[in-house]
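Q: Fold this one first, please.
A: Sequence and structure below.
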Amino acid sequence: MLRDAQDQVTAYATKNKIPLSENAKHFFTLAQYNGGPGAVQVLLNDFKREGTLANDAFLTKKPTNSKKGQVYDNVMQRFQLANALTSEGHFDPDAPSQITSTPITDK
């Protein structure tokens, strides 16, 4: 589910020529999972308009006029916790994923 969310975020950003850092990709993937594609599109467009995507400024400055402020708040909590756990060494961001998937095929 998260991989699909990430793919959708990347596709929307690419289609709309919105450059995303790795932190932004992680944040907006969580936003997609939390609030759905509509919420992500609103947030991306709000941040693009405000100029807060540059240098990931949106991570320190909440959108001022976004209708999706609650999604931002929810995702920010998860994002900050994930970063804290990673910085404490609980996760190795360079390790291969421990989750594997098996494609479903018709037989």
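Q: Good. Now the second chain.
A: Here it is, same layout.
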Amino acid sequence: MKYHYVVLGNGVYTNTQQQADKLESKIKMLYPPSSVSVIFVIADKFLELYNTAPETSTHFKLVAQPISLGKNEKHIHLLT
């Protein structure tokens, strides 16, 4: 499990880190085979993540088998 904690400033207070440590140990006690981490995201990094476009992937369906053009192994694909 990963917990993301957004920090309004540019650092993590000691008591906040201690609470994160307690959370990690409590989760590990309740669910022994699990791995747990608390990730602190400072305000600047949060804004950077917010303003970054998410990765996208597209899947195309082949209309027909690829057409081979010869020795150079170039192919033409028809997609929908």
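Q: Anything worth noting on the second one?
A: The CA atoms of residues 65 and 77 lie 7 Å apart.
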